[in-house]
Amino acid sequence: MDEIRGDEIRGKTEGTATVPLSVLDLVTVGQGRTATQALRTSVDIARLAERRGFHRYWVAEHHSMPGVASSSPAVILAHLAAHTERIRLGSGGVMLPNHAPLVIAEQFGTLEAMAPGRIDLGLGRAPGTDGATAAALRRTDRLNEGEMGSPLLERSRELGEDFPQQLAELTRFLDDDFPDGHPYARIHAVPGPVQATAEGGVQSPARPPVWLLGSSGFSARLAGVLGLPFAFAHHFSAQNTIPALDLYRESFRPSAVLDAPYALIGVSALAADDEREARRQVLSGALSMVRLRTGRPGLVPTPEEAEAYTFSPMEREFVDSWLTNIVHGTPDEVRTGLDDLAKRTGADELMITANAHGGEARLRSYELIADAYGLPTVTA
């Protein structure tokens, strides 16, 4: 494995934070806003995160969701790399079954060449969308098969179970180490390590570290067995967080990448100047989730619309449950909630995602959280 060290994975604590703090950006688009504005907000948040000492900034692959403009992580990361200088950038994650492993290796080799030593490659095994969109992404001809609507699910499961093989192929491309006689032995992901070994080559052999992402036990166990860092989606699968982290740690085997487990969790958190404003902001995200879960995805509603919306009893039950897993309130309340979560889960790093209608609220939240922890203002 080429030039990956644990210090490229393990974060550094700043201020009074007990674990490193990072940012997960879904590039959310609110009603009355454009994708252009959302992407500009992402640049603003990445710059703020860099300036205030957050460790890394990831974007996540989603498809066919009007309120989420992060369908192309590699493209967004290239844009963010051009507007930042120090902060680690990565995918949280790229959905491996949606892509040919060689294509991902080429994309992230290009990103590594653009921002050496700053790129993370987080991989997921879900499609990041619904079954029909997954079929369109994968160009399968099985969309219309069957009478019970199950072939899409079966196909999804088949692709998911192929994940370890897809991961092994991707890793071989990243390391440029297919064995002699392998059909791909003469195929190289470029930019990549082959340029360091070619005659006259001066390219660094370093490549992005691979993380496995998950919301259940499958990727937790696989990450542990392979000795890879693990990122768990606590922000939408909170009930599985501790079992998955326990499984990861129990399964962990030291590797050339890590000598001990390293797990971060994604957590929804939003701070505002007062508790009521924080509640208003997270309620708009909750209404957006209600619509997504009931097959009505759309742009993120305004706080005013969310406050005026009449939730059905079933929707209210969902919202109340959803909001219990969002750390929100004043900066001190958010800091206390994040500290409690880190202690309860034993997470090595917290990756904060702030879902709200407007970019201003999200920017303000990250600034307030940085202030609450006394994170330094980093200058060039």
Structure description:
The structure is a single chain. This protein is α/β, with parallel strands linked by helices and 380 residues long. Helices cover 43% and strands 13% of the residues. The protein is built from 14 helices and 9 strands. The protein has an 8-stranded parallel β-barrel with strand order 1-2-3-4-5-6-7-9, surrounded by 8 helices. α2 packs parallel to α3. The longest helix is centred in the last third of the chain and has 19 residues. The protein is globular, with a radius of gyration of 21 Å. The two termini are 33 Å apart. About 5% of the residues have low confidence.
Secondary structure blueprint with pairings:
Blueprint: E1 21-25, H1 35-51, E2 56-59, H2 73-83, E3 88-95, H3 101-114, E4 119-124, H4 131-138, H5 151-161, H6 163-175, H7 194-197, E5 210-214, H8 217-226, E6 230-232, H9 241-251, E7 263-271, H10 275-293, H11 303-308, H12 313-324, E8 327-329, H13 331-345, E9 349-353, H14 359-372
Helix pairs in contact: 1-2, 1-14, 2-3, 3-6, 8-9, 10-12, 13-14
Sheet with most strands: 8 strands, parallel, barrel
Structural class: alpha/beta
Biggest sheet: strand arrangement: 1-2-3-4-5-6-7-9
- How many beta-strand runs? 9
Radius of gyration: 21 Å
Low-confidence stretches: 141-160
Average residue-wise pLDDT: 90
- Please work out how many helical segments DSSP would assign: 14
Order of helices and strands: EHEHEHEHHHHEHEHEHHHEHEH
Binned strand content: 5-15%
| N-end to C-end Cα span | 33 Å
Please state the overall shape, judged from the principal axes of the Cα atoms.
globular
The percent of residues in helical segments reads 40-55%
